[in-house]
Design brief:
The chain contains four helices and four strands, in the order H-H-H-E-E-E-H-E. By secondary structure, the chain is an alpha+beta fold. Helix 1 (11-23) packs across helix 3 (44-65) and helix 2 (28-37) packs across helix 3 (44-65).
Length: 105
């Protein structure tokens, strides 16, 4: 059974639109602008309806592929309290330090 049957646009455009919306967390109007740049005229309301109908499948697939974050974070800038005085990490000599995530030793 063809899921995209009786739609004006080809399945490739519908799937690309729904993928853009869910993958990059864009608004319907942002997706509409991106498609307009490619010469595809579709309203934001149509995009919203496509995302409601087909979006759960794409969102589930994207979440399954997302591996999460690692155990190590690199800190660019952080403020710490040293001897009761708040300082930036760069002024206290901690810049570029690797810090393990909470719950790891």
């Amino acid at each position: 059974m063809n899921t995209y049957k009786r739609y004006r646009f080809p399945p490739d455009i519908i799937s690309y639109t729904v993928w853009l919306y869910h993958r990059f967390n864009l608004s319907c109007r942002d997706v509409e602008d991106l498609l307009a740049e490619r010469g595809i005229s579709v309203s934001y309301e149509t995009i919203r309806l496509w995302c409601v109908k087909f979006g759960t499948r794409y969102a589930r697939r994207l979440k399954r592929r997302h591996r999460g974050y690692g155990e190590t974070f690199y800190i660019n800038e952080v403020f710490v309290k040293i001897n009761g005085k708040q300082q930036s990490a760069s002024s206290s000599g901690l810049c570029g330090v690797m810090v393990a995530s909470p719950g790891t030793s």
